[in-house]
Amino acid sequence: MRNPFLKNIIFYIAAWSTVAVVDIVILSRYYNLSLSLAIADSLVYNLLYANIAMNFWYPVKYLNLEKQKPFVVLMVHVIAALIVISLWLIAGNFIMNWIAEENEAYKTFALSAFLGRAVSGMLYYFIIVLIYYLYIYYFSFREKLTREADLRTLVKETELSLLRSQLNPHFIFNSLNSISSLTITNPAKAQDMLVKLSSYLRFALEHNKNSLISFEKELENSLLYLEIEKVRFGEKLIFEKEISTETMYMQVPNMILQPLLENAIKHGVYESQEPVVIHLSASKENNFLCIHISNNFEKYVVSKKGRGIGLRNVQERLLLIYNKKDLMKTTVNGSVFEVELFIPQQ
Question: Which of the chain's termini has less CB crowding within 10 Å, N or C?
């Protein structure tokens, strides 16, 4: 990390020039020095201090308040300030005695002003040291925020990858079980289901790296999944869709519909003796893509309770991507289960 005054040298020169001008006014008006002596005195002492102060950066840089005890740091700075001010006063006095060697009035003034200069030198020291510390902690804090933001992004991407990878084995396991059963009862259906499963997985792998895809692509992927399940359940599974054209190019998280459709099949079609209608609708409302999925189910059939991976997965992914907790809503109206998604659009 470079000295901030070197990076902002114009500001540094302007600040000391202002101090020098104020000094000239005070010396000439309140101490009755001639203008030439007031200018000489102000320039000598302020130029000396401005050059010395550039070196205050090094003890500040290496005296870390987080690593050293505050009392130790304070004592080191007090000792450094005393040494610096002593050298500054000796050097300034030597130069001014050479400039005004025959001016007894100035010598008298210099003697009376000695204590005041020492106090002002101490004040300058701690003001400049404080500026250096504030600069260091400002940039350290900014770097910390940047690192934390990068870490949060990395964690978020990792969690999303884990959630996405959780879906494929879960779905493949169920599908392979179905194919295994169909190879005995209906080999032709098993072969058809295997072909469709292959197409679905190829599609999923091609788009797996994209966190967000168009709703059109997501719908295409979901329809592949439903075709696989349609092979197994036949007329027992009825799918209806009502999609607004303007939603097709809106962005959605990849593989966000499949677990919801799988949930509808698992808790609706699996358990029912009658045909089950899965209805999917999508529309644009303000700055949201609103997706509604519903399915009927038999109220009095005891459901085989699962671990709720699908719904929980969707909710966690929406929270990670959009940092909002109210983007998914589930309701039960009589014998109809409904899920609503509200996908924010940029």
Answer: C
Q: Is residue 160 part of a domain?
A: no
Q: Among the residues of the chain, which ranges form H helices?
A: 4-7, 9-29, 35-53, 57-62, 70-99, 104-112, 114-185, 187-207, 215-233, 258-264, 309-322
Residues 72 and 135 in one domain: yes
| pLDDT tens, the chain, 346 aa long | 677 787 788 888 888 899 999 999 998 888 888 888 899 999 999 999 999 988 888 888 887 766 778 788 888 888 888 999 999 999 988 898 888 877 888 888 888 888 988 999 999 999 999 988 888 888 888 888 877 777 676 566 655 555 555 555 656 777 788 788 888 888 888 888 888 888 877 776 776 555 788 999 899 888 888 888 887 788 889 999 999 999 999 999 888 898 899 888 888 887 777 889 999 999 999 889 999 999 998 876 655 555 566 788 788 888 888 888 899 999 998 889 999 999 999 7
Best CA proximity match to 345, nearest among 293, 305, 299, 286: 286
Give a yes or no: residue 267 inside a domain. Answer: yes
Domain count, the chain: 2
Q: How many residues in the chain?
A: 346
How far does CA 92 lie from the centroid of its chain? 52
Do 15 and 72 fall within a single domain? yes
In our burial notation (b when 16+ CB lie closer than 10 A, e otherwise), range 115-152 reads eebbebbeebbeebbebbbebbeeeeeeeeeeeeeeee
Q: d(Cα 256, Cα 212) in Å, to the nearest integer? A: 10
Report yes or no on 61 lying in a domain: yes
Alpha-carbon span 10 to 320, nearest angstrom: 46
- Burial label for 305, CB within 10 Å (0-12, 13-18, 19+), is exposed
Range of the domain at 207: 187-344
Q: What is the pTM of this model?
A: 0.54
User: CA-CA distance, 172 to 154, in Å (whole number)?
Assistant: 28
Same domain, 193 and 338: yes
